[in-house]
Amino acid sequence: MNPRKKILIVFLLLAAAAVLPVFFKSSRYYLNLLNLAGIFIIFTYSLNFIHGYLGLISIGQAGFFAIGAYVTAGLTMAVGLNYFPALFLAGVASTLAGMVIGFPATRISGHYFVLITLGFGEIVRLVILNWKEVTNGTNGVNNIPPPRLGPWVFDSRFSYYYLVLFVIVLTLLVTMSLRRSKYGRSMLALKVGELAAMAMGVNPLSHKLINFGLSAFFAGLAGGLYASYVGSISPEPFSVNLSVDVLTMLLVGGSGTIAGPVIGATFLVFLKEGLRFMKEYYMILYGAGIVLVMIFMPYGIAGLIDRLAVRLRYPSG
Amino acid sequence: MIQEIISGLAMGCVYALVSFGFVLVYNAVGAVNFAHGELVMFGGYFGLIATSWMHLPLWAAFLFSLVAMAGLGIVYNRVAYYPMRQRPAVTVIIATIGMGILLRNSALALFGPDPVKLKSFLGDHVFDVGGVIILQHHVLIIAVTIALFIGQSFFFSRTSIGRKLEATAQDQETARLMGINVNRMITLTFVLSALLASIAGFLLGPIWFRDPDVGLIVILKAFIVIVIGGFGSIRGILAGGLFLGVIEVLVASHLTSEYRDVISFLILIAVLIVLPQGFFGEKVAQKV
Amino acid sequence: MKGFKRMSVFFALALVFGQVRLSLAEIQVGVIGSMTSGLAQLGQRQINSAILAAEEWNARGGIKGEKIKLVVEDSGDSTTMAITALDRVLSRNPCAILGPIYSFQLFALFPEVQKEKIVLMSTSGTRELTQKNNPWYFRLYPHDGFIKRVCATFAVEELKSRRPALMCVTTEYGKSGHEILVETLRKLGVMPVAQTWHNKDDKDMTGQLMAVKRANADVIISQAHPPDTAILLKQQYELGIKVPHVASSAASMPTVHELVGPGMEGVYVEAAAEPNYDPDPMMQAWTKRYVDKFNTRPDSFAVPFYDAANFLFETIRAVGPDRSKIADLLRKNRYKGLAGNYAFDQEQNGAFFAMMLQYHRKDGKAVPAVAKKYDFTK
């Protein structure tokens, strides 16, 4: 597909996304789902940096998410900092944590790496739970103020949507420009054949660390967005389950792609809610659904679309 | 102190029991079975079906559970592994996550949210050995764990099927070239894993109250055990389990019960960094 | 491509119009609770209470001729699910909401509830809930501060404890309870000799119990959830630590008794209500209706939830399905329920009664007897 067409499509999609909430203005329920989906999209992109580009599986992303959430809450409430610099700093704090865990983790191969991320995620949650003086422990932090920018206050779901959309666009820009850059190409080379890439002078360590940092940063941003959106946070939701959820979103959507995180996060957020009418049984279907997607769409939905697109173009091949 | 150590050893055996089945699948197919905890839970639940709904005596319930779990193992393999066997391991992992959710919520729908208790073979009696209380059930756990340990070591090194399974776990391609029916071996691996889970579930039933959320904690502990012990070594897992069990109790009792799990995870990370193959595992080929 | 466009327009329209609902002459009341996940143990029983109350009213003709329609949504075990549940409930424009028991979910619901200006009632104990200046939240349960005061007072005054040990769970419930226990004991001039912690999902408390034994405690006061309370009591018994145990309300649940077995002998338990063994004939009759309908026994949280539903329906009968009128009347009114008397203080805590039960084993079952009742309703 020629690049001009691609840009046009992206533009149209963004325009559609920008207009979308107007249709749902009266429905707080759907606006909420859209916002949640949006936050999870960013969260899923963060995992994309580690899995899509490095091929490493992490089940500790909830740790970065939690750090982002608590730091944002802390800075806006205790220090009185404006939301936007607070959010950025939360991302930075998350990145620092990412560096700390990334350093030893990158020296270790695949399966053990998973376990380190697991340990990390759990340690973050447990520390938040028990360090009552700082985090208010299990009572959590409540009444987190909504973001303010000059005269604008993002305290409605409608307005929050645009804030989230803005961050998504940011994430997209970073992801896409990274891909195109020399850096991105050497990362791809690393993923495909590490030894060969190294022979060409690519330093795996710095690439891994950078991806780690980016991953932590965006997960932290997502956490910060979550904190002031929901308005109250407590350690319970930041568990392995959350990390596993986001991994599922990435895989179902299609890892390593641009569209994957968007599709995966949106699909799963809506699926979970859409099945509510089944009462106790909906989670059973949700689990079954995940298994089925993995069986029939191993490269995720985005992967499936890619393949269909190829087949449409070359019907004979 | 002795009281704590005995308790810790029993808990440790439980961890080891669970890890035995978990690591079997991991070694064979290279994928983490996130639903293993749910399999353990179902072992207990099948027992409950047999005793409560079918009114079978405990021995029959145990056999019923074994058979049912073997069946579950076959189905599980067919659904969560077989279709993805040629694909990257990550798809299997996600599929097992889905299976875990499915199993956990099926249990919820079938049995309700209330934790339920399974009877022990030995009742709730205790031995009082000079002031130290030992649950008879704990003794049973330790005995069964040791028996399984010996049994597994024997099975994998001495029997023909055992060696075929080992070969498949080490290298599927070579095994296939040697004439081993790899698919059948993998199915067998899942069945064995399910059977071990069933035994663990039965033994755990009386002391861990069956509730649908038990699965995830079980996995987490199994991870730590396997890291400490080493992925490939049965001996290591037994040692790892005992180690974790005792450390947990001692830390909770003497140091701090709040941060007990943090310490367990820190140990996990420390071992991963310093000794990634675990105390007993083989040297892992490190990426440069 | 055209077909695709058409389909998407259709779906968008369907979604938008799906929100418009015709409401018949029905009074919509929201009910949010945990129907799935491990929290369903408490949640489902409460929802049952609301269903029972609504059915009884509707059988008598509803509220002034209009049927009560409960809008029941599952809040699961997470904040996000609670929020989406609230959304779904609000889309039916209810006049009031009976909410989930778990405080981490309630806190997440507060901002919307305040914006919507709709009454939210729950039977939760966590102290902080009524310290957030939310005029729309009404608590119909003796809160932790009060009930822990009762526990500590009972331990010191009735059990003559001088060396109590506190064993608490690390959730918000455990931590807030712990604070109040320490404070009350201090006011009574007693210092705890041991304070242990455990996680809700822990399956082994040997370490904690041995620490308590070493400290030579004369009474154990615990604040924990059902599964961990069960393990605490069971292991205390197995380890032979023969010390009176004053447990939190989780220990009054029938499932806990089944799991603990002989260890329940002599255990003291705080309770707001005890529907299965309270000799009061009205309570007995209610319990029978509950069991007949739902095939499961109610617990001590189900009773105040039933009272809350009835208090609400009475209020609606007096002032109609008007959100702010309901709130106003609730603040001024009193209600005599099954479990006790309800009247709201400044913070909108509505219940100041509690009892200490003591359990004895009879024919293999744990049967409570009332050890002491406390009622401080003004």
Characterize the main sheet of chain B. Answer: 2 strands, antiparallel
- Helix coverage percent of chain B: over 70%
Any idea what the shape of chain A is?
globular
Low-confidence stretches of chain A: none
Number of helices of chain B: 11
Average of the residue pLDDT scores of chain A: 83
Q: Bin the helical content of chain A.
A: over 70%
Strand order of the largest sheet of chain B: 1-2
Biggest interface, residues from each chain? A-B, 44 and 47 residues
Strand content of chain A: under 5%
User: What is the radius of gyration of chain A?
Assistant: 20 Å
Strand order of the largest sheet of chain A: 1-2
N-to-C series of helices and strands of chain B = HHHHEEHHHHHHH
Q: Give the strand tally of chain A.
A: 2
The helix-and-strand class of chain B reads: mainly alpha
Strand portion of chain B, in percent? Answer: under 5%
Give the H and E element order of chain A.
HHHHHHEEHHHHHHHH
Question: What are the defining features of this structure?
Answer:
heterotrimer, A: 317 residues, mainly alpha, C: 378 residues, alpha/beta, Rossmann fold, 2 domains, seven-stranded mixed beta sheet, five-stranded parallel beta sheet, 12 helices, 14 strands, 44% helix, 20% strand, globular
Structure description:
The complex is a heterotrimer of chains A (317), B (288) and C (378). Chain A has helices at residues 3-23, 28-54, 61-77, 83-105, 110-130, 132-135, 157-180, 182-192, 194-199, 204-230, 240-253, 259-274, 282-296, 300-313, and strands spanning 148-149, 152-153. By secondary structure, chain A is an all-alpha fold. Helices cover 73% and strands 3% of the residues of chain B. Chain B contains 11 helices and 2 strands. A two-stranded antiparallel sheet of chain B has the order 1-2. With 378 residues, chain C is α/β, with parallel strands linked by helices. Chain C has 2 domains: 22-142 and 282-347, Rossmann fold (3-Layer(aba) Sandwich); 144-271 and 355-375, Rossmann fold. Chain C has helices at residues 2-18, 40-59, 79-90, 103-116, 144-158, 172-187, 206-214, 226-238, 254-260, 281-294, 302-319, 323-332, and strands spanning 26-33, 67-74, 96-98, 119-122, 137-139, 164-169, 194-198, 219-223, 245-247, 268-271, 334-336, 341-343, 353-362, 365-375. A 7-stranded mixed sheet of chain C has the order 7-6-8-9-10-13-14, sandwiched between helices. Chain C has a 5-stranded parallel sheet with strand order 2-1-3-4-5. In chain C, strands 11-12 form a two-stranded antiparallel sheet. In chain C, helix 8 (226-238) runs parallel beside helix 9. Chains in contact: A-B, A-C, B-C. At the B-C interface, helix 1 and helix 10 of B face helix 2, strand 7, helix 7, helix 8 and helix 9 of C.
